[in-house]
Fold this sequence. Notes:
With about 170 residues, the chain is mainly α.
Amino acid sequence: MTRSTTLITPLTASQRRIGAHIVWGLSNSEIAGEEHLTLETVRSHISTMRLRLHCPPRASRAVLAHTLLRLKQVPPPELTLRHSFMPDTEGQRLIHALAEHSPRGDIARAAGIPTGALRTRTDVLVRQAGAANVPHLIGLAHTHGILGTDEPTTTPPPPNGPAGAAR
């Protein structure tokens, strides 16, 4: 994902509430129930949020969560863990890749891991963080200072070669 230098249109209060639910890892159905909205209204708000934040329409929820947090449109989740979550270098690289890329191959290349290992390694990180899912992992990574407004971006995935070919 490339970062846009274009100014964003700030979110409405309703959109910020929905964005906070995304960062906490709630599904569209769960958000609709929490906010007493229809599923279509939630989808519409999310679509509008993507436009306002210049987040690609097909970007993953993790990328949307990172964009919401990076642009300070929603606060990061509060710490609910009794332990500190600090993944190793490989885990941090994977978190950055998940926050910035949507296609599995791009995530794997940016993280420097084989595509076939992506799901397993992502699931391990989600469990270690005590997260509900990947968008929640991204939110917790912001809370723990692993991701933030000044974090380095991952190197764009190379155009040729399968992920993890060097391993």
